[in-house]
Specification:
Strands 1, 2, 4, 5, 7, 8, 10, 12, 17, 20 and 23 form an 11-stranded mixed sheet that branches. The protein has a 5-stranded mixed sheet with strand order 13-18-21-24-25, with no helix packed on it. Strands 3-6-9-11 form a 4-stranded parallel sheet, with no helix packed on it. With 224 residues, it is mainly beta. The protein contains 2 helices and 25 strands. The protein has helices spanning 7-10, 35-45, and strands at residues 51-55, 58-61, 65-66, 71-72, 76-78, 83-84, 89-90, 94-96, 101-104, 107-113, 118-121, 124-130, 135-136, 141-142, 152-156, 159-165, 170-172, 177-178, 183-184, 188-190, 195-196, 201-202, 205-206, 210-214, 217-220. It has one domain (3-216): 3 Solenoid (UDP N-Acetylglucosamine Acyltransferase, domain 1), CATH 2.160.10.10. 7% of the residues lie in helices and 38% in strands.
Amino acid sequence: MYENMKISNLFDTTQTIAAQIFEGVTYPFEVLSKIGSFILELGKSLSLEEYNKVSDDVWIAKSAKVAPTAFVNGPAIIGKEAEVRHCAFIRGNAIVGEGAVVGNSTELKNVILFNKVQVPHYNYVGDSILGYKAHMGAGSITSNVKSDKTLVTIFYENEKVETGLKKMGAILGDNVEVGCNSVLNPGTVIGKGAHIYPLSMVRGFVPAQSIYKKHGDIVPLENL
C-alpha cells in the first residue's frame, strides 16, 4: 500500500548478511523486533575460518578491525573488513555490514547496518536500519522514542502509518546522505539516494532522490 516504503524500494538486500530477515516482510520496521534472535541463529551458520566467536553471542570477522577501546555487547555480528573505532559502543542486537565504519564514540543499539554504511563520528543509531552505503554526518543521530512514550507512527504523504512499536528510529535507504548534527525523529524513513541538509530535524517520509532542506521544503536531487 505504501509503495515507496517497501523493502524492495529502499534496499538492495544482496548487500547485507541479514538478507533473510527481510524475506516475507513488506516494510522494514517489521523486522526491528526480530534482530536479536536473528543474530543468534545467523551466528551459528558463520564460518569459523572467517569469523571469531569472541563470546556466546558475538561474532567478529577476522578481517574486521576493532579498536581495543571499543565495546561490543551481544548479540552482535561485525562483518568482513568492517572498522569499529576508538570508544565505539555497540550495545547489542547489532549487525555491522561488510566494510562498514562505526566511528569514535558512536553508539549502536538494535540495528542493521548494510555493507559500506558509515556512522563515523559521534552518532547514535538505535532501533534503525541503514541501507547500503548510507552515511550519517558527524553528530547526526536517530531519536527512537517519542517524548510522550506513545507508539511510533510514520507520516507518509497525508497519512499516518501505525508501526505498533514504542521504539523506532530511522530507516535509511541505500546511498542516503545525512548532514552533520541532524536529528532523525522517531518514525523517519528516507528513500534511496536522498540528501538531508546539515542541522535538519526530520520527521516522516522523505522521497528517494530528493533533498531535504527543511520541513516543507523538499526538492528533487537534480536541484542540488
